[in-house]
Specification:
CATH architecture: Alpha-Beta Complex
Number of domains: 1
GO molecular function: purine nucleosidase activity
CATH topology: Inosine-uridine Nucleoside N-ribohydrolase, Chain A
Protein name: Pyrimidine-specific ribonucleoside hydrolase
Keywords: Glycosidase, Hydrolase
Number of helices: 13
InterPro entries: Inosine/uridine_hydrolase_dom, IUNH, Ribo_hydro-like
Shape: globular
CATH class: Alpha Beta
Radius of gyration: 18 Å
Number of strands: 12
GO biological process, one term: purine nucleoside catabolic process
Structural class: alpha/beta
Strand content: 15-25%
Oligomer: single chain
Helix content: 25-40%
CATH superfamily: Ribonucleoside hydrolase-like
Order of helices and strands: EHEHEHEHEHEHHEHEHHHEHEEEH
C-alpha cells in the first residue's frame, strides 16, 4: 500500500479527511501532523488525538507542527466556521483521546520519509508552514515524496477569507509560495473552485449519521459549520475530504496543469493564488489543479459517503 502522511489543522472538514485517510484500503497512514490554522495549535493537536482515538488508530504517530506562520502573524482564525473547539462545537463526541504526540512534526515526517521504501504521498490540508519548513530544512528528502496533495487556493471564484484568498493559503502565503511556486515536488492543488461544487446536503449528512458512531459524530458538526461556510444554499462543503479522496485514489478528480503565483504582499490581495493560463513558460513549474469540468461530482459525493460510513 502507498504510504500516506496527513498534515492537518482539524477543523471540521479535516475530521472528515482524517477519517477517510484512516480507513482507505489503498494507503497506509504512516503519520498525522498537526499545524496551526482553523484553531490554535494546542486545539488542532488535541483534535487530531481525538480523531485518531475515535478511529482506533493509536498506531499512527502524531507530530506537533508550527504554531504560527513563517513570517507574519495571522490576524484571524476560523472559529466562526469550525467552532471554538474546531469541531463544530461538538468535540466531546469525538474520542477517546489517541496517543500522546510522538515528537515534532518535522521529525515525524522525516522519519517516515527516511524509512519508506517507496514514494510517500503527503496530503497537506492546512496552512503549508510545516511542508515549507520540511522542504527548506531537509531538501534531501524531497525526492521521497511521490506526490503532494494540497487543499488550498481559489483560482477563479474568489476567496473565503478575503475577496481573492482561500484560508489555508492566506494563513501563510510565504509558505504557500515556497511550496507551490519554488519547489519541484509533483503537486496536485484542490482549490475552492472544485470544493465549492462538491457540496453535500441534509440527505447526504443524514445517511452518514445513520451509518454508525463515526458518521454520526462527523454529521453532528453540521450546524456551526454550515452557518460559518454560508454558501447561501442548504449544502456544506467538506473541502479537505475531497483532497484526501484524490490523495488515496489518484485520478478521481480532473486536473489541468497550471503555472501558479502566490501574492505575498501585505495588501488586499495577500494570499491570493494566481494561475497563468497563457501557456507554460520555458523552465516554468506547473501544478495539477483540480477543476469541476471533467470531474464526476456526483461520483465524488457517493465515494465520500461510502468510504466515511461505518457500514456502507
Amino acid at each position: 500500500m502507498t504510504p500516506l502522511i496527513v498534515d492537518t489543522d482539524p477543523g471540521v472538514d479535516d475530521a472528515y479527511a482524517i477519517a477517510l485517510a484512516a480507513r482507505a484500503s489503498e494507503v497506509e497512514l504512516r503519520a498525522v501532523t498537526a499545524v496551526f490554522g482553523n484553531v490554535d495549535l494546542a486545539t488542532t493537536t488535541t483534535n487530531a488525538r481525538r480523531l485518531l482515538g475515535m478511529l482506533g488508530r493509536g498506531d499512527v504517530p502524531l507530530g506537533v507542527g508550527a504554531e504560527r506562520p513563517l513570517i507574519h502573524p495571522t490576524t484571524q482564525r476560523a472559529a466562526d466556521v469550525h467552532g471554538d473547539d474546531g469541531l463544530g462545537g461538538v468535540a466531546e463526541r469525538f474520542g477517546p483521546l489517541g496517543p500522546e504526540p510522538a515528537g515534532r512534526a518535522l521529525d515525524v515526517i522525516a522519519d517516515v520519509l527516511s524509512a519508506a521504501t517507496e514514494p510517500v504521498v503527503l496530503a497537506a490540508i492546512g496552512p503549508l508552514t510545516d511542508v515549507a519548513l520540511l522542504l527548506a530544512t531537509r531538501p534531501d528528502l524531497a525526492e521521497r515524496i511521490g506526490r503532494l496533495v494540497v487543499m488550498g487556493g481559489s483560482i477563479g471564484i474568489g476567496g473565503n477569507v478575503s475577496a481573492g484568498a482561500e484560508f489555508n493559503v492566506w494563513s501563510d502565503p510565504e509558505a504557500a509560495r515556497r511550496v507551490l511556486v519554488e519547489e519541484r515536488v509533483p503537486t496536485t492543488l484542490v482549490p475552492l473552485d472544485l470544493t465549492h461544487v462538491v457540496t453535500v446536503d441534509r440527505a447526504w449528512l443524514s445517511a452518514l449519521a445513520a451509518s454508525g458512531p463515526v458518521g454520526e459524530a462527523l454529521a453532528a458538526t453540521r450546524d456551526v459549520y454550515a452557518r460559518g461556510e454560508a454558501l447561501g444554499v442548504d449544502r456544506v462543503p467538506i473541502h479537505d475530504a475531497v483532497a484526501l479522496l484524490e490523495a488515496v485514489a489518484p485520478g478521481t478528480l480532473a486536473t489541468v496543469p497550471l503555472e501558479l503565483e502566490v501574492d505575498t504582499s501585505l495588501g488586499p490581495a495577500r494570499g491570493t493564488v494566481l494561475a497563468d493560463r497563457r501557456g507554460r513558460a520555458p523552465g516554468g513549474r506547473t501544478v495539477d489543479v483540480a477543476v469541476p469540468d471533467g470531474t464526476d461530482v456526483d461520483g465524488v459525493r457517493a465515494a465520500l459517503l461510502r468510504r466515511l460510513g461505518d457500514h456502507m
